[in-house]
Design a protein that fits this description.
Four copies of one chain form a homotetramer. By secondary structure, chain A is an alpha+beta fold. Chain A folds into two domains: 215 residues, Hypothetical protein af1432; 82 residues, no CATH class. A four-stranded mixed β-sheet of chain A has the order 3-4-7-8. A three-stranded antiparallel β-sheet of chain A has the order 5-9-6. A two-stranded antiparallel sheet of chain A has the order 1-2. Chains A and D meet through α10 of A and α10 of D.
Amino acid sequence: MNKKKIINDPIYGFINIPYEILFDLMEHSWFQRLRRISQVGLTQLTYPGATHSRFHHALGAMHLMWESIGLLRGKGISITEEEARAACTAILLHDIGHGPFSHALEGTLIRKSHEDLSLEIMHALNDQFRGDLGLAIKIFTGEYPRVFLHQLVSGELDVDRLDYLGRDSFYTGVVEGKIGTNRIIKMMNVVDDELVIEEKGLYSIEKFLMARKIMYWQVYMHKTVLAVEKMLISAVSRMQMIIDKNGVPQCSQKFHRLLAGDNSLELFLQLDDTDAIYALKNHQMFSDPLLSYLSEGILKRKLFRSRLSTKPFSVDTSEKILEQLVNTLDIDENTARQLIFSGSETTQFYDWKPRQIKFLMKDGRIRPFEEISDLGDTRHETTKYYLVYPKMGM
Amino acid sequence: MNKKKIINDPIYGFINIPYEILFDLMEHSWFQRLRRISQVGLTQLTYPGATHSRFHHALGAMHLMWESIGLLRGKGISITEEEARAACTAILLHDIGHGPFSHALEGTLIRKSHEDLSLEIMHALNDQFRGDLGLAIKIFTGEYPRVFLHQLVSGELDVDRLDYLGRDSFYTGVVEGKIGTNRIIKMMNVVDDELVIEEKGLYSIEKFLMARKIMYWQVYMHKTVLAVEKMLISAVSRMQMIIDKNGVPQCSQKFHRLLAGDNSLELFLQLDDTDAIYALKNHQMFSDPLLSYLSEGILKRKLFRSRLSTKPFSVDTSEKILEQLVNTLDIDENTARQLIFSGSETTQFYDWKPRQIKFLMKDGRIRPFEEISDLGDTRHETTKYYLVYPKMGM
Amino acid sequence: MNKKKIINDPIYGFINIPYEILFDLMEHSWFQRLRRISQVGLTQLTYPGATHSRFHHALGAMHLMWESIGLLRGKGISITEEEARAACTAILLHDIGHGPFSHALEGTLIRKSHEDLSLEIMHALNDQFRGDLGLAIKIFTGEYPRVFLHQLVSGELDVDRLDYLGRDSFYTGVVEGKIGTNRIIKMMNVVDDELVIEEKGLYSIEKFLMARKIMYWQVYMHKTVLAVEKMLISAVSRMQMIIDKNGVPQCSQKFHRLLAGDNSLELFLQLDDTDAIYALKNHQMFSDPLLSYLSEGILKRKLFRSRLSTKPFSVDTSEKILEQLVNTLDIDENTARQLIFSGSETTQFYDWKPRQIKFLMKDGRIRPFEEISDLGDTRHETTKYYLVYPKMGM
Amino acid sequence: MNKKKIINDPIYGFINIPYEILFDLMEHSWFQRLRRISQVGLTQLTYPGATHSRFHHALGAMHLMWESIGLLRGKGISITEEEARAACTAILLHDIGHGPFSHALEGTLIRKSHEDLSLEIMHALNDQFRGDLGLAIKIFTGEYPRVFLHQLVSGELDVDRLDYLGRDSFYTGVVEGKIGTNRIIKMMNVVDDELVIEEKGLYSIEKFLMARKIMYWQVYMHKTVLAVEKMLISAVSRMQMIIDKNGVPQCSQKFHRLLAGDNSLELFLQLDDTDAIYALKNHQMFSDPLLSYLSEGILKRKLFRSRLSTKPFSVDTSEKILEQLVNTLDIDENTARQLIFSGSETTQFYDWKPRQIKFLMKDGRIRPFEEISDLGDTRHETTKYYLVYPKMGM
């Protein structure tokens, strides 16, 4: 059986599967499960094109790893077959620890970080594959001495980020967020086992930083995306509360177990977005009016009002909203408080200190981005405050 | 409230919503439901990028309608505001009658054609919108005398087809299927209320026909796509059979009602892909081993073997497979027979007779495609025979 | 005769010629001449794809004007047919005053600025077209009260710049310089007859500014481009000097007249890049060794050495080079001095003061770019110093 | 000095120069000369974007060769460094024998075919490079036993054709002519030293054939392109006739020598498009009214009338035109006859016999295109008759 398949990809044209183990891992039901986990949660309520899956992202990142390795080898960097295979394996599995609705429910419904879960699952797979994933795990955790391999998996310019920024820009249609992935990869090099960018790639990096900033505010922190996310979190908390009060939420048995706090890996690996949507669908008509309200809102796209501001919202503002909520929705103050989300998000265009992007100058020197860019002080931070709450009279 | 939104689209850049009624229809829960119905069913098991929804296709087709109208107006064709609004409405709703997994289950689980269901739903919406969809319905059914408006909704070169071919090519990454939508639209004109293509557009049409042929065989009739579809149909029949025998399939109440033969529109409008996937997920471990086998196969991508041939498969071949199935899977002959799918599909590059593509020559004459193309006899048909059955020892 | 032609364009797909006068102007021999003037001079010696002509740029800018007008009209801004026609005319002719090798020889061989020459030629055409260009000239010069029309021709975000940045990025293959022309135009609006950008377009503008910066340094001020330009200037000065000394340079009679100082418009309109290249070709073997050296260098791509630095070059450095030149090329000090070019170029990412890009906020307010962008202080300037001189032993 | 440069390319992104000899050949003045020879002659009078040079095409074809070699090596085909270097050299130089206005003047002004001239020049370069081009020449002429290397340089699916079809489609903006170069190359394989296409690539080949047909009629045989070509041929013949009659045409000394019949390689290598355009520019005002008429027509785009038909034009038609010409232009019948061009061009969609495109089936068999395509009989020929003559009253 030929396992060196070629897969069509709208972004890269073709994705090759260079090693048999990658094919075997892809065929594993734990990995197939990623087909049913969307890459950007419910962002498709804002950007209808953004229906792409974690499965596809993992494949894309693996493709970029393979391209990077080929490129670096072409520049004379020696990378053994074993290293190449392990780096591809590590990136293929880097997101396997994502659960229903990825980031949105991480930290609430899913107690552990997806990185930790990915590592746990890699270890479990390593057992199944008789230790064949040992080097991949070392590269993933950063224990392997050739640091650039880890940097390609998880660094300032890793292929994970290159793929997800590019893919999310592509599928949302936010073309301002497009990055020159190909060209960034062509500018990669390795000096003393560390990843560097060749001087000629400066402008590609500058555009990458700009695109990243744009994607952040235009997509990941888009106010409607934020509203949906908060509604989803509310709905799930509400389901959990119902269980705590010995109620029975209308969902699959397995999702029930998850809501009830079962943290087992075996359970986790059977869940995907479908379970969460199914739960929402069932709760559109439910005895708890708040949960019905939230479920219906998400499914029928009757979304919360979401406000973004460069200044914090006053306590007054939220107190007023609270009062209105109590009156309009006929709920108690405590419940109402759970429906108001406020907070802030901060990003930095480029942080000068840690995990710097380093450049290999034509004269052989290594210099950090900030010394050679002419963009001025790129450390400027942006903070946006959000206030998300039900539309009255919805 | 501003209802003239702009929506990002990976293919067209931006989609404008030119009339408020379109926004109101889009916000309707019946339409929002299309977000959870994939455009090409389970094709993503073959082409991982193909996760796009019917919702998105409907928006895209509406965009093309609006572009076509603008183009034709620019050429001096008078189209009233009422006509434009109705044509956009008709195309926005043309696929609203699609149910779970679209085409795959049409004719088996869903008894009516999606066109009939779309019309029924349009009538229901017309009631809700106080008759505001009257003209749209006339255009949809072809009763309106200005034929080109109907042709744009449903004809040889309608915007439905232009969008879905383009969109499916885009999301699958089968770039050979890409069509020059923009250029075809720019070549449209209207003579005596009939749609024509200007002579200069001949090559765009030729490439369109080629792309259509390629999409047909490369995507819609791809052998793996076919295998998944047949497995899905089997699984659903099996669920129905279980109900017939008073068994209780593990699915949502509503999906149960559908399986049991409830044809009501009210039920239909509450169902989407999630219900079908949820049912498959639940049947991975089920008392009926055949249904488990099928459900697990689809979800974990352990697919049936699929063979395509330009010649019919001999009876011998299928009898042999039948025997092997009975032995390997330990099932009775009757059951085994349900797991073997054979048949054929035929396409024609371009049919010279009905619904011809007509060209407006520079000298003002109207001539059919076959008279001005130099592609030779384009009526050639292709028939492919398929044989789909379980992999033994899967 | 149908003058409303459609022209294929690699960037925009199709370019329409919306008014007959535009067709007539395009057919005029003065305009056809722009086919033989390259848009970016000898930049193709660095970027082989950059062979595009001024002719094509003028068409492209006209296309963007027509798109902008359509867009603005769609938003309810009233623009009369006369205004639209005049704005298209003004932009079509805005660069007609370019001579051989455009910018490179402006200010040396060509004494007047190309803007002044364009205006002179527009007046001459206005006479030929019986005053039909009156309004176009007013828009071009900024005398017409509806300022946004002039801003579209010549402003911070004019269609001239949108086309040339986009076109130069496209043809050079410097994709980092790609701008979202389409999206910027879709975000245009007019308030009190002034051009504004809608708030949603902020990110498109940020990316535009970044792309502009990149194009500046990566293309227009690329060190090899600079070297060629300085060589060309030297060669032409040398030809002029030979005339001053009663020598006879080997070039066309007309180019000779230009070199000799004939500033007449009639002469100017007969010259193009061909005359300059022909002169270089003829001087590859010429009695003046310096001119031969320069001519051959340009044609055979034996280019000067070009150095860029963020710090000024010391006097020492250039004196040393001077000395070497005198010794190596066997020329006198004075001549050698003419072969060394030093200077500096400064750009600003975005200047906060004049001709600001203004945004129309969702709440109706008008605010300048710097108040709503989160890019930090975008006034940062970049200065680069160059030193261009012959390679020794070339 | 680093000779392994990276060159920006609008089509492929980056072009690498993999061997030093390629850089040295590119730097050679004979090769630099190709910068001044346009790839498609005066086609830019019809498609303003088509200003690309032979230089760029040669680079592009070399890039595709390098890609093909990498691809084939990745599939396990052994190709030595020497072979790779020679194949890249052969393709880089395959068009070096093109003269002013490429194909248009081949056979009239330039007596030899460009292939023969390319070979002559390769031999001359081989002397200069001390025999380093020996293998390249063998591959070019087909003497080298590993046939696929020659097939890549000159075969049914060579990289020359892949580049020029792609490049001409790109620069003209005739997107219907776009071919999937990347995908075709990815489908290449070698069996018994012959080039084959893998079965999966069938649709890419079908689209390639369609695109080729379209480019042929839409660009290479476009009626305006034809008109310009015939005018150019006329103008040059007229210059030759003037010399025969001891007249002195106004052109460069070297172009004069060429017109007078000097076939030396040394002369040929000093000429380019500039010489021809310069000659036209000078003859706009010339004692021979016919030559003036032609020269001015080309430069000011007052083109001949061009008619295409699927049926031959009757003798009557041309006799009538002849008569009108004599009367309108006041020329004698003989001269008039030289201004009327008639003839025909025939193409075949795909010729089944020679140099077949062969496919490597999944089962290992080798089968020709016509056996596996379902496009029907693809041998259909198209013949178009043209009649080109001066517009009366021009």
